[in-house]
Structure formats: structure tokens, C-alpha cells
Write a structure and sequence with these properties.
single chain; about 290 residues; alpha/beta; Rossmann fold; 7-stranded parallel β-sheet; about 50% helix
């Protein structure tokens, strides 16, 4: 009775008449694009030519961010840009070289005026144990996965400080939280990314620059596809790794990109220093 007396008048005079509004019958996907979460933000995304980096670039563009596509292969970046078709700057470069990073930032500021978001997605994986890995494989893993990420972040921070805000999103891994067989260098590098994220978050919090990392499980990227394809028994290799995820499937790059959009947006203004698992339940059963 109370519902009828107090709520029906509100419903009939405010909500119900909206059925006559011309926008009322638009599909939900159209409403989705009327509300954009990253409008006005410029995001630099490394590893943007494929996999998770590419998915982040596409997702950010859909949310009306201006995106800067960074990677070593121009043709892959141009393919990503062709799918965006708006406010995308292609900047080929090597994140382990400070001259390349500074050129990328100079081009970004010249085109877009500043930068508010950095997604450190570029990475390399060499399988092996502490005994079987070569020195070259170990050094390359840390040079790209940790040193390159640190250099990119270090050079971007002054621009975020000037903007009065910033969000740095590092791509770590579930193997940056737990170990795994034959992943000695990769797991160690991602562990470094996770703890570096937390230290940076503490240092930069007073300036409203947030630093978080995403810890994916196994995601269907070109890198994972190559690993499965080259296994002695590819079908068995995929089955065993799928079983590690209680949700019963590998992740898709878009699963990770959705979390990156959240961390880049103002919806996460009180989130910093977090290591966010997006892993289909991989870590749920770990001690």
C-alpha cells in the first residue's frame, strides 16, 4: 500500500513518460556510447601491436581516449590504428632505449598536449628453469619486462605531475604472485613488476598519480598460441592449462582490457597500489 501511495506518482510523472522519448527505443549499445569513461584523457600503451596491448588500445579508443600506440613493429601498430580510426598516434620505438622513449613522449605532447595514462603492456617470455635459461634470455626478460617498464614510467611521471593527475597501469601476471615450473625468469620479472607497482604507488600518491597492476592468468594471445602450438602434444598442453582456471577457459585480451579501462578511469580514483588478478579463478585455490 505504501508503495502504491508514495511511488506510483513518481513513476507515472517522471519515469513512465520516458517511453515516449525518441532515445527510449535505441538499443543498449547506443546508450553505452553516450557515456564515455576516458574522454579527455591521453593514454600511451606499449605492446599495442598485438594481444593485451592491442585490446587495451581498442577498448580505450571506444571510451574516447586519445591513444598513443607504442611497439617495435610499425606494421602491427598501423593495423591497430586502422581499427581505431580516430585520435590514434603510431609511435614505433624500443622501450629499453631512453632516446626512443623521449621521442615518443615528445610526439605525444606535440599531438595531444599531455598524457594522463600509461599502460605498460610490452613483455617477453622465455621458458626455462634457473639452470636451463641462458644469460641472454634472463637479461632480455628483465630488460623489457622490468627495466623498460621502469624507464617508461620514470619519463612519463613529470607529464602526469604537470597534468595534476595520472594512472600508471602495469601488466604483471599471476606468476608475479605465485611461482610456476619452467618460468624462472618470467615469474621473477613479474614479481618485480608487482612490488615495483606498490612502491611507486606509495611514492606518487601525494601527487594523485595512481599506480596499479593487473595480474592475468593465461590469456589467448599470439605468444600463448605459439607456446601451445610448439608443445610436444598441443592438445594436451592446452587442456592442462585450461584446467588451471576454474571458469573453464583461457582469458581473452578484452577481459584484461576491461580492467585497464576501469583503472584508467575516474571510477578508480581511490585505487592505488593494487595487484588485480583477472585470472578465471586461477589463484583462488592457491595457498
Amino acid at each position: 500500500m505504501l508503495f502504491t501511495v508514495y511511488t506510483l506518482p513518481f513513476f507515472y510523472f517522471t519515469v513512465y513518460p520516458l517511453r515516449f522519448h525518441p532515445l527510449y527505443r535505441l538499443p543498449f549499445t547506443v546508450y553505452r556510447f553516450l557515456i564515455v569513461r576516458l574522454k579527455g584523457k591521453t593514454a600511451i600503451i606499449t605492446g599495442a601491436g598485438s594481444g593485451i596491448g592491442q585490446a587495451c588500445a581498442l577498448a580505450f579508443a571506444r571510451e574516447c581516449a586519445r591513444v598513443v600506440l607504442v611497439g617495435r613493429r610499425r606494421e602491427l601498430l598501423k593495423e591497430t590504428a586502422s581499427q581505431i580510426q580516430r585520435d590514434a598516434l603510431v609511435c614505433p620505438g624500443d622501450i629499453t632505449k631512453i632516446a626512443d622513449i623521449r621521442r615518443i613522449l615528445s610526439q605525444t605532447v606535440e599531438r595531444f598536449g599531455g598524457v594522463q595514462v600509461l599502460v605498460n603492456s610490452a613483455a617477453v617470455l622465455h621458458a626455462g628453469t634457473a639452470e636451463t635459461l641462458s644469460e641472454e634470455e634472463w637479461d632480455e626478460t628483465f630488460n623489457i619486462n622490468v627495466r623498460g617498464l621502469w624507464l617508461m614510467s620514470r619519463e612519463v611521471i613529470p607529464y602526469m605531475r604537470k597534468a595534476g593527475e595520472g594512472s600508471i597501469i602495469n601488466l604483471s601476471s599471476v606468476l608475479g604472485l605465485v611461482g610456476s615450473r619452467s618460468r624462472a625468469a618470467y615469474s621473477a620479472s613479474k614479481g618485480a613488476v608487482t612490488t615495483l607497482t606498490k612502491s611507486m604507488a606509495l611514492d606518487l600518491a601525494p601527487e594523485q598519480i595512481r599506480v596499479n597492476c593487473i595480474c592475468p592468468g593465461i590469456v589467448e594471445t599470439e605468444l600463448v598460441a605459439d607456446f601451445i602450438r610448439n608443445a610436444p602434444d598441443p592438445e594436451l598442453a592446452k587442456k592442462r592449462r585450461t584446467e588451471l582456471h576454474p571458469l573453464g577457459r583461457f582469458g581473452q585480451p578484452s577481459d584484461i582490457a576491461n580492467m585497464a579501462v576501469y583503472l584508467a578511469s575516474d571510477e578508480s580514483l581511490w585505487v592505488t597500489g593494487a595487484a588485480m588478478p583477472v585470472d578465471g579463478g586461477y589463484l583462488a585455490g592457491k595457498a
